[in-house]
Amino acid sequence: MEMMILSVLGPQLHCEWSLPGYQVALITSVVFIGMGFSSVAWGNVADKYGRRVGLTVCMCWTLYYGLLSAFSPVYGWLLFLRGLVGFGIGGAPQSVTLYSEFLPVKARGICIMLIAAFWAIGAVFEVLLALWVMPTLGWRWLLGLSAIPIGTFVSFCYWLPESPRFDVLSGRRDKAMATLTRIARDNGKEMPRGTLIEYKQ
Length: 201
Fold this sequence. Notes:
Largest sheet: none
Order of helices and strands: HHHHHHHHHHH
Number of strands: 0
Helix content: over 70%
Number of helices: 11
Radius of gyration: 20 Å
Oligomer: single chain
């Protein structure tokens, strides 16, 4: 949704603020520039502090600056804040990393590919939201309401489990065992016998 909103926002601001074409294009470009700079940084955060922490922090960042950009008084502020939104979005792929570390090998490929469906769903939902909001409330409300899914995710991050693999590699076997035990219980299975060992490639 945060990506699709750019195609809706550009034409509206072109009319409202009388922006030339290159300034409209820059609103989109600055988001991708932010993503490019931040992806390595968020990867390092997730590797050092955990997948769960990295994903939660980057989503909180995106939520904060996404909401703040709805209050942009002038073009310069909007450009700056949308760049910071892009910086946060650069950490979103950590969700795929965390997700894949919980998937069984047989289902991993298809399940990760199915995540792409949510990009399509989000894009369609953003267009429908724009059709509903833009004619009466304007682009600021669209920016604010588009942050609701991220806000929902952030509010549920407390229940997001940490990757057991990350816990084992960080020397926290007890936490990894607790997570795996909970998974086994939720699936109605018994924990397999054996000892967790640290495996580094």
